[in-house]
Amino acid sequence: MDVASLSLEALSRFVTEELGERAFRAPQLYRWLHQRGATSFDEMTDLSKALREKLRARAEIIPLVKDLEQRSIDGTIKYRWKTRDGRFIESVYMPAEDRRTLCVSTQVGCAMACSFCMTGTMGLKRNLTASEIVAQVHAVNREVRKNEGHETLRPLSNLVFMGMGEPLHNFENLKTALAILQSQDGPNFSHRHITVSTVGLVPMIERFGKETDVKLAISLNASTDEQRSKTMPVNRKWNIAALLDACRTFPLRQGRRITFEYVLIKGFNDADEDAHRLIELLKGIPVKVNLIPYNENPGLGFHTTGEERAEEFRAILADGHVAAYIRRNRGRDIAGACGQLANRGETQAGAETQT
Ligand code: SF4
C-alpha cells in the first residue's frame, strides 16, 4: 500500500481494517508522513517496533529521488525528480520577500499539446499519484529548511499547480493531494495560498469548483477561437465561449477572482485589438489577468513580446477596467519558467550534473 497517497480517512481504514491497529495510530502515521515528510518507517520513533515491522511488510513510502538541481541567478531553483519507475518530473521553487512558492507538476508530460510549451511536446507519459504530487512539496520543504536554515517544518507558503501536466486531467489524484496538503494533520496550507491552473477542461472546472476550495487560474492566451485553436488544441473541443461560461458559473468565494494567464507572444496575440477583445470577453467575470511575456523555447518558433509592448497591452486592459499585471519571469536562465518545463531527463538522464 502506497500509504502517502491515502487521505486521512482512507489511512484510518487501512490501519484499523488491514493492520488491525487502534484508530489513533492513523493520525500519528499521517503526521509523520505529511507534517514531517518522513521518507521511511524507521524515522517514526514513537510507533512501536512491532507496528513499524507491520508497516514495512504491508506498506511503503514511494520515494521521489532528487536527480538534478539547477539554480537561477534570480534565486529560483528547478528540481528534477526521478520516480520509482524511472520517469522524470520537475518542480520549481520561487522565493520572494513575502512568500516562498513551489510550482508543482501533476503528470509526467502532458496530453494537451499546447504548441508553445515544451512539456506539450512530450505527450502524456502517465499521471502522477497523489503521493508523488505531495512528495514534491515535502522534498522542497526539506531542501528549503536545509538551504535557508528554517526551523519550521513547512517553510513553503504558496503552491501553484502550473508545472508539468494539466492538473484537471488527473483530477482524482489532484483532489486527494489537495486534501492532504490542506489537512491540519498534514502541511496545513490555506486554500487562499493554493492555485490550480487549467487550459480549460470545461466539465472538470465545474467539478473542481464543487469539490475543492482552492483558487482557479485559466490559461487563456488568445482573444479569438482561431488564435487559440492554433496553439491550444483543447480549444477545438471547448471553445472560448464554453470556457468563459464555465467561469461565469464557477462558485467563487467572496472577494475571490479567477486569474487568467495570458502568455504574450510577439505578433500573434499582443495587438491592441487582442487587448480590446479580451476586455469584452471577460466582462461580468471577476478576474485578474496575468500577462506573461513568452519564454522562448528553441525550435518552437514563437517569440517574446518586448517590455514596452507588454506595458502598452496592460495599459489598454487597465483602461477597460480589467486588473492586469505583467508577471516577472522567474528561472528563465535554467528553463524553469512557464512553458519551459520539459522532461529532457526522459532521454538525457544522467547526462547532466547529478546532485
Ligand atoms: S501549457 Fe500546460 S496544459 Fe499546455 S501542454 Fe504545457 S503543461 Fe500541458
TrEMBL record:
EC number(s) from the headed UniProt entry: 2.1.1.192
Please give the InterPro entries that the UniProt record associates with this protein.
Aldolase_TIM (IPR013785), Elp3/MiaA/NifB-like_rSAM (IPR006638), Methyltransferase_A (IPR040072), RlmN_N (IPR048641), RNA_MTrfase_RlmN (IPR027492), rRNA_lsu_MTrfase_RlmN/Cfr (IPR004383), rSAM (IPR007197), rSAM_sf (IPR058240)
Recorded hits in Gene3D superfamilies, A to Z, give: 1.10.150.530, Aldolase class I
One GO molecular-function annotation for this sequence? metal ion binding
Q: Which residues form the Radical SAM core domain?
A: 96-332
Give the function comment from the record.
Specifically methylates position 2 of adenine 2503 in 23S rRNA and position 2 of adenine 37 in tRNAs.
Protein name stated in the entry? Probable dual-specificity RNA methyltransferase RlmN
Give the species. Answer: Pseudomyxococcus hansupus
Give the gene symbol: rlmN
